[in-house]
Amino acid sequence: xxxxxxxxxxxxxxxxxxxxxxxxxxxxxxxxxxxxxxxxxxxxxxxxxxxxxxxxxxxxxxxxxxxxxxxxxxxxxxxxxxxxxxxxxxxxxxxxxxxxxxxxxxxxxxxxxxxxxxxxxxxxxxxxxxxxxxxxxxxxxxxxxxxxxxxxxxxxxxxxxxxxxxxxxxxxxxxxxxxxxxxxxxxxxxxxxxxxxxxxxxxxxxxxxxxxxxxxxxxxxxxxxxxxxxxxxxxxxxxxxxxxxxxxxxxxxxxxxxxxxxxxxxxxxxxxxxxxxxxxxxxxxxxxxxxxxxxxxxxxxxxxxxxxxxxxxxxxxxxxxxxxxxxxxxxxxxxxxxxxxxxxxxxxxxxxxxxxxxxxxxxxxxxxxxxxxxxxxxxxxxxxxxxxxxxxxxxxxxxxxxxxxxxxxxxxxxxxxxxxxxxxxxxxxxxxxxxxxxxxxxxxxxxxxxxxxxxxxxxxxxxxxxxxxxxxxxxxxxxxxxxxxxxxxxxxxxxxxxxxxxxxxxxxxxxxxxxxxxxxxxxxxxxxxxxxxxxxxxxxxxxxxxxxxxxxxxxxxxxxxxxxxxxxxxxxxxxxxxxxxxxxxxxxxxxxxxxxxxxxxxxxxxxxxxxxxxxxxxxxxxxxxxxxxxxxxxxxxxxxxxxxxxxxxxxxxxxxxxxxxxxxxxxxxxxxxxxxxxxxxxxxxxxxxxxxxxxxxxxxxxxxxxxxxxxxxxxxxxxxxxxxxxxxxxxxxxxxxxxxxxxxxxxxxxxxxxxxxxxxxxxxxxxxxxxxxxxxxxxxxxxxxxxxxxxxxxxxxxxxxxxxxxxxxxxxxxxxxxxxxxxxxxxxxxxxxxxxxxxxxxxxxxxxxxxxxxxxx
Length: 857
Description:
This protein is of the alpha/beta class. The protein has a seven-stranded mixed β-sheet, with helices on both faces. The chain is globular, with a radius of gyration of 31 Å. The two termini are 54 Å apart. Residues 142-160 and 357-463 have low confidence and may be disordered.
């Protein structure tokens, strides 16, 4: 009696020179489940083989094909790295496979594709299927040509009597494993087509190799157009039946109708009405149809997101260079390959970009802050500005900025470390806004806050900052005082100036008064980079307090690292970073996001919709939240993003209602004035906190006042500090702030973190006995404690601060009722422990051998 046999090989572990893969083991498990299902594959024997060595793989392939009988169906599936040697011959990688230092393959550690082809040719089995999900898999059937001296035509000989080979990519293209996905792109749609029956032709009850290939190819090329799945078969090869499909299955009928209803990557208006009616006719639940639609639309959305990210990268280059230099275009093409986009996909974007050869601008040389000379002063000429580059506006598709791929591009393009923003003097775009002025204090303040100060005359550049002579120490304050983020960042400046005023009133730092120089980042991260460079090089500040968004922080990191300068960053962020040139006084996810997710799961529900602004922090935070939900039994039923400053929120509200028709948790990582539109739209849609409790990470007392209590009452926020914290230090802080800025003002978490940062810097400088020796200041900062308004906090050697965790609910008075708080400060873990790639890693800058990232537990 004929049998159906499958050998499934997955390799994700390798020797030197090859990147480990996450997906192969999952691919084997997923395909095995489908093939063993009697309602789908109905295979009699499925043999999984994970991470074999060379000998084991060769023996298993030889044994399975040798014992197969004439009428059997034999399926061979391989997922892992496909590699070529210097002659272009194709090999399957094993766990022993390694590359030499020159990048060439050690062929003794891999399985030659010619051997597998020979085993297939010698088998009695007349129905053979090979499915290859690996790079260069198109070279596998090419290898068959070398089996005889006549170089027989591939399509005339490979298929034989019922042979078929399905490949994920041509010999010059790459199969794709995406971060955050359990299955590779190809295997995902291979399994989907079989499991759901969607690969069966309309009305058919069986799935043969040709329709299966057609289905997978369409889906893969929608999600990753540069991948080119192929089928090689002859005679009956394309007609080999591999699985069954229930033609009258309601789920399958609905799925096929969804596919017919897609217009430009989304379900069309009339298509939506048809589907609503069909759902009722078929007796499907809303949850079932949401899952079907999400699966069908996924490849379309992936392609759209990849195009948008490529467009964002192009726009970024244009902003920096004023056009597209040749040297960057080549790097951009590499990024295009990483996104699996074809040339024809990106040409409409590149066609709008002018070609330029940018002028080379010499890098200014930083010099120490000079000592004022009592007798002779030589005024230094005011530095001339570099020629302004033309401002080029390029109309591109709306873009999204997933952090994991953007960072890859910055590395590939040489923009990381002391890269683009670290080596170019960026043109300052004209701004119409006036320089920020703090609210007028109730009593005169000696602290200047304007960004229009005239630089002091400079003298001997070898001098050090004077100690105890009544001089001044310049510090930079760099926040958005205009644009979409000004709603949040202006108050942080007020808190920093309050701390400076208090310190100056108490005698200053090392006997010197602190002189703040305030700059406006204008809610624009290239501007942040420009202003950071100005503060460090031209103004020669001792340190900088600044930034809010992760995009602004990441834009200045190369500058602070290349100039070996120090930034104090005051806002909770996504973690996954540990720079030696930044002290982070805001929280990382284990000090806010993670505890809030646990609280929501215990108190508000298991289904979450994730909504955020379209930049680094929200996307990375949501990646962490999804991993945490998966580990703790929750589910992210939807996820969407909106560009900073965009107030067109209606589409997101509609998606939330569709994903959570009966209510559920909304986790909100929106930032800036987008929150105003969001919470008003929630209320207008009748989505009240009792059914749609919203947990925010960007809503503080300040935003509650700006948005309106009536829109936020009953919703939640997670921070380390609220104005309602009951500590003596907080009462003193709140009183001092209101006395300076007015009794109607409120204080919030980023303001407190900024206030803390100024004091911790003061303590570190005084312990070090110097403001100029950065290494001494950093070493002195480790272990510094401060009786902060939130409680006693400690600066750790990973450059992050221990923090208390609190969840608050918005009350009628616009303040937060604290409904959860930790008894002790929680130590920071900047590398997230829910994300597999960073689990077990920690940071320690007190030990050079450990540094930014090392395996600590």
